[in-house]
Amino acid sequence: MSDTQSQVNIKSAIEAILFATGSAVEGTKLMAALGTEEEPLGKKEFNAAIEELKAGYEIEERGIHLIELDGKYQLCTKNEYYDVLAKIVNMPKKHSLTDVILETLSIVAYKQPVTRAEIEKIRGVSCNHAVNKLVEYNLICEVGRLDAPGHPILFGTTDDFLRCFGISSMDELPDISPEKIEDFRKQAEAEAGIEVPT
Fold first, then answer.
1. Is the pLDDT of residue 140 over 70?
2. Nearest residue to 75 (alpha-carbon basis) of 26, 12, 23, 139
3. Which of 38, 131, 171, 172 could be cross-linked to 167 through a Cys-Cys bond (beta carbons 3.0 to 4.6 Å apart)?
């Protein structure tokens, strides 16, 4: 890439890469691809191009938008066009997240990486069905193995989790307030008929 390449060309190149790959691409990889062999594209210039692209999709009421997923970028269809797309292409059906599945997902989101045994210890019941469904829905995945007897699988959230909940990184998850934790403790006591130590 020459020093004279314009901002418009940088935006077009980002758009072309994201359209062609169809999946989330790390910002560092995009900067490397848009730079020279000796020097990647500068972060300031890259961020400016990304922000202009995002704004362009919103202002022009386009059917797609540019999202950020934990330092990766992807072109995605806007949610309001899901039903229209489903009539044309074989879209995956929308998944139903029961209270049990959502509870399990929250544990993984806030405690990751986490094993099945740790989830079950927190929930107090078996979590096999919920974990299997979350893996099937691609909201969680295997992120490694615990260095312990049996080497149990460690689970963490996926890019699809971020996409589904409309956040760009795990830092955007809401904090759990001390009052909420106290409510959870009281609920657990009531359900189990025991007193949970604080």
1. yes
2. 23
3. 172
